[in-house]
Amino acid sequence: ATFAAAPNIDRAFSISRGVQSELTLAPNIINPRAGTPITLTALIRGLLPIGVVSFTTTLGTDIINPTLPIVGCTNIPAVFLQSDPNVAVATCTTFAEAGTRRYTATYLNDNTNAVNPAAITTNSPAVGPNDYNDIWWAGPSESGWGMTIAQKGLQQFNAFYVYDASGKPIWYVMSGGTWNQDYTRFTGAIYQPTGSIFNAYDARRWQIGAAIGTGTLTFTDTNNAVFDYTLNGVTARKNITRFIYGTPDTAPKITVKDIWWGGEAENGWGVAIAQQNRSLFAVWYTYDADGKTTWYVTSGGSWSGTVFTSPLYTTTSSPWLGVPYSASAFNIQNVGTLSFDFRDQDNAKMTYTVNGVTQTKSITRLAF
User: Fold this and answer.
1) What count of Cα atoms within 13 Å lies in the side-chain half-sphere of residue 95?
2) Which of 10, 77, 124, 238 is 20 to 30 A (C-alpha) from 23?
3) 286-307 as b/e, with b when 16 or more CB fall inside 10 Å?
4) Per-residue b/e over 30-50, b at no fewer than 16 CB within 10 Å?
5) Phi first, then psi: what are they for 181, rounded to 5°?
6) Do 196 and 287 meet the contact criterion of CB atoms below 8 Å apart?
7) 264-296: per-residue pLDDT in tens?
8) What is the pTM of this model?
9) How many CB atoms neighbour CB 165 within 10 A?
């Protein structure tokens, strides 16, 4: 009888969607040689990721003992990637140890309850080759052709970007091979696949075919090698060296160098991304309207957060096989643009425009 209802009070306030921080972790070298410096890179996506990252490690087979802090890799500040306030990166360099190791990154932002661990496992061979991942060429006197060496552990996946008898771009691939005893010489079979045109790709038409020759890379040091090959009955030798194109840059970065592909559904083509500092040099190896190998290349480009965009070029030049190569015949033509949107360390969207045709492909690192 004496109840008095509380008066209604109206209030207005704004709400927004909460952003859960996302953390991925990758090494700059997958399956490195023991003793090789490796850079652990933690990529954080979230709302103003202004916290710190700590890196730890343990044996990959150890499920009992806790991970141990890596010296000098605790409480590394997350730094924004250029102008994107919702993407940050933290890096730390350590040395690979023999055996399978598990690395973990833990991100702690200004809210002490927001802890998001990410982990990777990598196998470090006790012995093995040096790291030869890069774009290689024969120097300015043979400008216009080159090769990408992708190396993981004891295996290499190498592609050669050259020209046919009419000067059109073609590529060959050495998708595996074996080392000599002291890991200075790598030998494998060379193939020239066929497929379907890039803008209407059909993996069912991809054919690797029989080997058309063999190649041997003899590394005289970490930056120079001799390439001996026999292709279609033609035997020759080239002296090659790493192609230096990167600009020194201390800005934060993610590490994306590798062979990337569109998965089993688009087996047969891919893109080789080389990286020096934050500079990328990418070669897209694919097929023309006749199903023959062709390739496009990026030169230059810029970052916006985790998106890299560059002009896309096609080239023509001197015939390469069985005749002296002439760099004076090298010609480059802009045919469009190519961009990579790296969603995390292992997955990206590749968008290209070639002669007015625009498509987007999902790509991921090629495991080999």
Assistant:
1) 7
2) 124
3) bbbeebbbbbbbbeebebebbb
4) bbbbeebebebbbbbbbeebe
5) -65, -35
6) yes
7) 999 999 999 999 999 999 999 999 999 999 999
8) 0.88
9) 11
